[in-house]
Prior knowledge:
By secondary structure, this protein is α+β, with helices and mostly antiparallel strands. It is built from 17 helices and seven strands. Helices cover 53% and strands 10% of the residues. Residues 1-11 and 343-349 have low confidence and may be disordered.
Amino acid sequence: xxxxxxxxxxxxxxxxxxxxxxxxxxxxxxxxxxxxxxxxxxxxxxxxxxxxxxxxxxxxxxxxxxxxxxxxxxxxxxxxxxxxxxxxxxxxxxxxxxxxxxxxxxxxxxxxxxxxxxxxxxxxxxxxxxxxxxxxxxxxxxxxxxxxxxxxxxxxxxxxxxxxxxxxxxxxxxxxxxxxxxxxxxxxxxxxxxxxxxxxxxxxxxxxxxxxxxxxxxxxxxxxxxxxxxxxxxxxxxxxxxxxxxxxxxxxxxxxxxxxxxxxxxxxxxxxxxxxxxxxxxxxxxxxxxxxxxxxxxxxxxxxxxxxxxxxxxxxxxxxxxxxxxxxxxxxxxxxxxxxxxxxxxxxx
Length: 349
């Protein structure tokens, strides 16, 4: 099935090499690989600069899922190495220490997987990385989300043998015909519970040096990612820094303008002026972050709507309800029940 209209929005695109690397693992026959690429509107030999949109990627996954053996996506996702994640992957594995690697993964996840939101949350013993999909509840959405988390798990395992042996992967409880294959691939590091896709790393591993640490290469890769974020999202360096700090909110309310100004070493007035010079402003960045955080929390289903509203800084639930209508054209209850099917997906289609 061909997609009639491809995405034009670059922010919803990923390198075509993702698909090529996964498909080549499954389709040793070059003719089959070219048939898949043609089906989703890519050239038979996509160059390094070739990209594909989210709908094209979903179409490709559906094509593969109809032809490949059950559970094909498991090994295909786990076998990706850091370089196949682009500059974001290199920024992660070359970090000096594990906590800096996690910060890089969270900061640059929108380059690697623009269809998801990645957040950190700490418990008494573990640092959790929680992935929430922003895709419509249809087609191979769940499969792509599972592939995203498996690829994250594999990437973090490349930080070193100690980290790899202690990583924990938690997938939501649901029917999976390939569940036994997941257990076979991951063993005791995998369990099924709740509604979240998440990866746990023991807190005592956060200060461990990364196996492939290279501060110079890490700095270069991070700068490349920041440049890509500017190009992809139209945000200047300071705007991107502010946005990332807003998205790193865990159980606390997003930081205020004054607090963010202190964190960046600026006064509130100077921060406002410099954001304006980059063509952005505090309100736009905050609204964008709050809408994504709210959508992720509503999808996860761990908190009541009142708890989500309070955590995101809405003392009056009615204000949160109005914000949801502004973001999605529906209230939080409707969004929780219907997800992005309740409104038009912002993928450029």
